[in-house]
Amino acid sequence: MKETAILQDTETMMSILAGGAAILVLYMVGSFVMYMTKNFLDYRLKSKMVERGAPDSVLLQFDQAARKERKHIAIKSAIMLAGIGVALIFITIFPPLGIHSLMIMIFCISLSFLAYYYFIRKTA
After folding, report:
1. Are 13 and 7 in contact (CB under 8 A)?
2. Can you tell me the distance from the alpha carbon of 59 to that of 57, in angstroms, rounded to the nearest whole number?
3. Per-residue exposure over 22-61, b if at least 16 CB sit within 10 Å of its own CB, e if not
4. Is the peptide bond preceding residue 96 cis, with omega within 30 degrees of 0?
5. Mean pLDDT estimate for the chain
6. What's the chain's Rg over C-alpha atoms?
């Protein structure tokens, strides 16, 4: 009998993909909870600062930092999703699914992080 490679076995690939999907969902839920908690705490901090009569310059500086951070998060998300999209296109062009598909995905995501790094370095 001929042995099959572990990544060419359909059941093994499906269990790996299911595990990866579960990790992705947990990451997304955790990120959402952290983002909402951060926004709530920022709102409370701003409210307390206004109640205690903080100078307008401090409030404006705090707001500018928050806007810049939101902009960077949006750009990072866009670059990451574009990288994942490019990876999925390459995976579709070069079948079958296997270890090379994973390598294509990792390579495209790493290129996305590199692009984000250069964007941050350029804007700083």
Report:
1. yes
2. 5
3. eeeeeeeeeeeeeeeeeeeeeeeeeeeeeeeeeeeeeeee
4. yes
5. 83
6. 21
pLDDT cut 90: percent of the chain above it = 24
Per the listing, tokens 């307008």 go with 56
Say which amino acid occupies 11.
Answer: E
Six-digit token pair at 57? 């310059």
| Stronger pLDDT, 116 or 52, i.e. the higher one | 116
Tell me: pLDDT of 5 over 70: no
Euclidean distance between CA atoms 101 and 87, whole angstroms = 8
* Spatial contact of 80 and 59, defined as CB atoms under 8 Å apart: no
CB atoms near residue 112 (< 10 Å) = 21
**Cα separation, 36 vs 68, whole angstroms:** 17
